[in-house]
Every structure is written in C-alpha cells, then in structure tokens.
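>> received
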Amino acid sequence: MLRYALIFFIVAIIAGVFGFGGIAAGAAAIAKIIFWIFLVLLVISLLSGAVKKI
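>> returned
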C-alpha cells in the first residue's frame, strides 16, 4: 500500500512540474489518504503482534 502512495506522490510531483494543477492536487490527495491508511494499518499490526521482531 505504501508503494501506491509513493506512485501517486510521484505522479503529483510530475504533474506539478508540468503545470497540471488539478491532476497534481488529486494525485497528492490520493497519496496522502493511502499513506495515512498505511500508517494506521502498520500501527494496528504492530500493536496486535502480527509483525514479529527479528
């Protein structure tokens, strides 16, 4: 999921460079939402013990 957030972030950066304001804002918003979902799921999995320590 973090991969998708990074992809949308890169799309937003490229669109911003070329001046596509609406596309850049949309991609940045999607990247931000996916990133926060990823962080919430990471914290939940760490607290539940799903991720084992090495």
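>> DSSP finds two helices and no strands in the chain.
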